Amino acid sequence: MRIAILGAGSLGSLYGALLSQVDGVELFVHGRGIHGAHMAAEGLSVEGERDFFVSNDDVLFSLDEVGLPSAALGTLDFVLLTGKSNQIEMLAGLARQLLNADGYVLSLSNGLGHTELCQGVLGPHRVFAATSTHGAWRPSPGTVHWAGRGETVLGSLSGGPGMEEAIPLLSVLEQAGWSPQWSNDGIAIVWRKVLLNIAINPIAAIAGVENGALLRPELFSSALSTMLEGASVARLERVVLPDDSELEEHLRRVLNATSENMCSMLQDLRNGRRTEIKFLNQAIVERGERVGIQTPLNQVLAAMINALHVE
């Protein structure tokens, strides 16, 4: 099986590293910047939950600044998009060049609207919904810290492929140690991940803390209230979600499992990069306006994060 990881930052590098350990997988990892250049030149080191090294003799690493290798065009069975939210449309265009005639794509990036973008670029018949709650961050170029085990979920979308088409990838993800799950409701799994992101990322970023600090009562209360405000919007959009008590328990589980993780929004602010707030809390505010409800908690968090952006 031939698999590509496009937009290999923290999470994408981690997925690539573990997939590289599976027999029968030919892996192509496409990165950018200093981290991507280090992987291409020296390989990739993983630390945290497991410690191991991925040689650049075993994986085809390439750089966005250089372009796609011609030998990979039209040959990939599955493409995983793991870049930032504002890169998804561009990455979907690259995926279209890489996939073979029967290939599929899935986006593991944070936020709302990615599946629709992918469907617009590639066609609904090629796109799975997907989410991940594994924690990962980069302490230095060429190194990814696996900060906590979460879950990987794939799901079907209207007009898209189903479980039968996903089985080969689910099998490979299982062998890689991701313990993947399947859902027949892809929209619901995307929303459940978004609800976690809107609850965790901006509060952890503003407070400057790792995920586990949000288990403190005063921070957890704020995170939960923000999550449930977003859930109200989702339900008005007719998204099927668990009840509030189950959502609360899910939030606690993820915070415990990724307690040592530095969320991507905090990493972005510390490194002077723009965050994904537009696709998270700001998207909740905009969708709330469309369905006729106010979302003051999400609005305040979005405004605060936007004020912290370095222009």
Description:
It is a single chain. With about 300 residues, this protein is of the alpha/beta class. The protein is built from eleven helices and twelve strands. It has an eight-stranded mixed sheet, sandwiched between helices. It starts with a strand and ends with a helix. The mean pLDDT is about 95.
Please identify the oligomeric state. single chain
Treating each run of at least 4 consecutive H or I residues as one helix, how many helices?
11
Morphology: globular
What is the β-strand count? 12
CATH class of the largest domain: Alpha Beta
Portion in beta strands: 15-25%
**Main sheet strand line-up:** 5-2-1-6-7-8-11-12
Average pLDDT value? 95
- Low-pLDDT stretches are none
SSE succession: EHEHEEEEHEHEEEEHEHHHHHH
Kindly state the percentage of residues in helix.
40-55%
- Going by CATH, the architecture of the largest domain would be 3-Layer(aba) Sandwich
Look up the CATH topology of the largest domain.
Answer: Rossmann fold
Gyration radius, rounded: 18 Å
Write the layout of secondary structure elements.
Elements (H helix, E strand, L loop, with lengths): L1 E5 L3 H10 L6 E6 L1 H10 L1 E5 L3 E3 L5 E4 L12 E6 L6 H11 E9 L6 H9 L4 E6 L2 E6 L2 E6 L3 E4 L7 H13 L5 E3 L2 H22 L9 H20 L7 H14 L6 H7 L10 H11 L4 H13 L3
Parallel strand pairs: 1-2, 1-6, 2-5, 3-10, 6-7, 7-8, 11-12
Antiparallel strand pairs: 3-4, 8-11, 9-10
